[in-house]
Amino acid sequence: MRILHILDHSIPLHSGYTFRTRAILEQQRALGWETCHLTSSKHRPGGVLQETVDGFEFHRTPGPLLWQKRLPLVAQWAVVKALERRLDELIPVLRPDILHAHSPALNGLAALRAARRHGLPLVYECRAFWEDAAVDHGTTTEGSLRYRLTRALETYVFRHADAVTTICEGLKADIVARGIPEAKVTVIPNAVDPGRFTFGTEPDPELQRSLGLTGKCVLGFIGSFYAYEGLALAIQALPDLLRHDERVRLLLVGGGPEEAALRAQVEQYGLNGKVVFTGRVPHDQVPRYYDLVDIFVYPRLPMRLTELVTPLKPLEAMARGRLVVASDVGGHRELIRDGETGFLFRAGRAESLVETVIRVLAARDRWPEVLAAGRRFVTEQRTWESSVARYRSVYTPLVQQHG
Q1: Can you give the pLDDT at residue 218?
Q2: pTM of the model
Q3: What is residue 73's three-state secondary structure?
Q4: Is 137 in the same domain as 214?
Q5: Using CA atoms, how far apart are residues 92 and 155, in angstroms rounded to an integer?
Q6: Pick from 110, 91, 90, 92: which is nearest to 102 by CA?
Q7: 36 and 176 co-located in one domain
Q8: Gap between the Cα atoms of 179 and 1, Å rounded
């Protein structure tokens, strides 16, 4: 079976989107399937039309013309049309058995039109509702014309694709509520490769010393600093935690739109030296930073995006053998059983975060039990091998139906 994946962007860029894609491609090849890969013009402007990255050959799409970029609606339509043209060029050469388009809906629309012209089945994968992410980023508001148009376009793709996949039960429920038959929607959950996450390793003493974390109780976050992650809540909680235990430190690894505001908040609260910003670190160095942390904190704020979408980072922390404290938004509740595989607190409530962390610190005798349960959850229910195997029940009937 040969699958042509149609993507927004890909490696060598680093994001949750590209890491999920890479895991899917690796596991599909392990299943004996052939994969081909095309990114839209949103991958990055300019550059070559074909590129090999880590053994994967990616076909690229030229960007819109300068005058098109100046008109938002025209620019979006130009993305669709350019992707359609590339699909028309590549399908006769690559001869895929199935098209698999991944969010956003612009990719789905281009793939839908190409699939009909070439007589191929189309699977559309929704990884998040991009209109909700745009609300958090401040580029639109819920209920605005842009919001409603984006939602309507994706619903159109859901209805006309041959099958729909998504990453969690929250997104599936919303898709089904739009009138899409439940049998048409398959959850392919986010997962990890446990072999890449050594369980319970000790911190690197040199790295510990360089960051001033030797002998400290380290709360940590590794990822992108978006507003919906709620990192300001963790900083707000820190003074109360320091009054309980002056050894507590907050380690923030990564960067993003909220970094300047978070640094300003640290100054305002007089927490210099208590909050450690590392900036972005090379991907191959991330495991060393996982090992520095005693308790990972994921204080996502309550909103549509976080209620519906499951994150990947808590799974990585559990696989690595680190405790997880997270807000009780829907996306976290799909991953964490409170008091068993991790701990949940009331979303948006700094006092609840403080109470939960203090309770966890006071129950160190239970840490090995919780850590083992978290690792067991990942290895039994959230491996990429088992997750990607679910595509078989999606692809096979469609390929058979289309001959």
Answers
A1: 98
A2: 0.88
A3: helix
A4: no
A5: 29
A6: 110
A7: yes
A8: 31
Q: Which tokens is 272 given?
A: 């210099």
Give Cβ neighbours of residue 349 (< 8 Å, ≥ 6 apart): none
User: How far is it, in rounded angstroms, from Cα 7 to Cα 216?
Assistant: 43
Q: How far apart are CA 223 and CA 280, in angstroms?
A: 9
Q: 84 with 75: CB under 8 angstroms?
A: no
Looking at the fold, whether 363 and 391 belong to one and the same domain comes out as no
Q: State how beta strands 2-7 and 98-102 pair.
A: parallel
- Number of domains the chain is built from: 2
- Cα dihedral 313→347→353→224 (10° resolution): 30
User: What pLDDT, in 10s, does the model give residues 1-13?
Assistant: 999 999 999 999 8
* Residues 6 or more apart whose Cβ sits within 8 Å of residue 244: 354, 358, 361
What distance in Å separates the CA atoms of residue 269 and residue 316, rounded to the nearest whole number?
Answer: 31
**Same domain for 94 and 180?**
yes
**Interval 225-240: pLDDT, tens:** 999 999 999 999 999 9
Radius of gyration of the chain (CA): 22
pLDDT at 14: 83
DSSP 3-state assignment of 109? helix
d(CA 298, CA 400): 43
Is the same domain home to 226 and 371?
yes
Residue 357's region, left for phi above 0, alpha for psi from -120 to 50, else beta, is alpha
> In this structure, are 202 and 234 located in the same domain?
yes
Structural domain span for residue 338? 194-381
354 and 234 in contact (C-beta within 8 Å)? no
CATH of the domain at 257: 3.40.50.2000
Closest CA to 109 of 64, 158, 36: 158
Judgement on whether residues 241 and 135 belong to the same structural domain of the protein = no
**pLDDT at 74 (0 to 100):** 67
Beta sheet of 343-345, edge-to-edge order = 275-279, 248-255, 217-224, 295-298, 323-327, 343-345
Q: How far apart are CA 403 and CA 209, in angstroms?
A: 62
